[in-house]
Design a protein that fits this description.
Blueprint (H helix, E strand, L loop, with lengths): L7 E12 L7 E9 L3 H9 L5 H9 L3 E8 L3 H9 L39
Antiparallel strand pairs: 1-2, 1-3
The protein binds zinc ion.
Zinc ion (ZN) binds next to loops.
Length: 123
Amino acid sequence: MKKSTTSTVYLIHLLRPLGNPNNRRGMASHYIGFAEHDLAARLERHRVGNGSRLMHAVAAAGIPWVLARTWEEGSRELERKLKSRKQASAFCPICRGEQEPPAGGRVIGKRVPMDSRPVQFYR
Ligand SMILES: [Zn+2]
């Protein structure tokens, strides 16, 4: 992935859904975010559990995830629009079958205990 210096809206696909503590009916399976300057740095923060409440919970639960899609020159407005649709799977290339999720063998740390399982990020 090229280092982005422009603002980017990005879609993260969780390889296992996360139970949403704020919404008992809801399971989160995606995260849509906005990176002002440096997407790679933003994703690295998510990987260690920073930058958003959801991604913190994802990291704490040891759920692997992938960057499914980016919108270059994205804006906060686009981020809001995408979030408001509530159906991230509709524009997720992995859910739509347009992009292969990472093969099981690539999910490093599959057999380590849950609490020490690293969150995966595929470049
Ligand atoms: Zn998806």
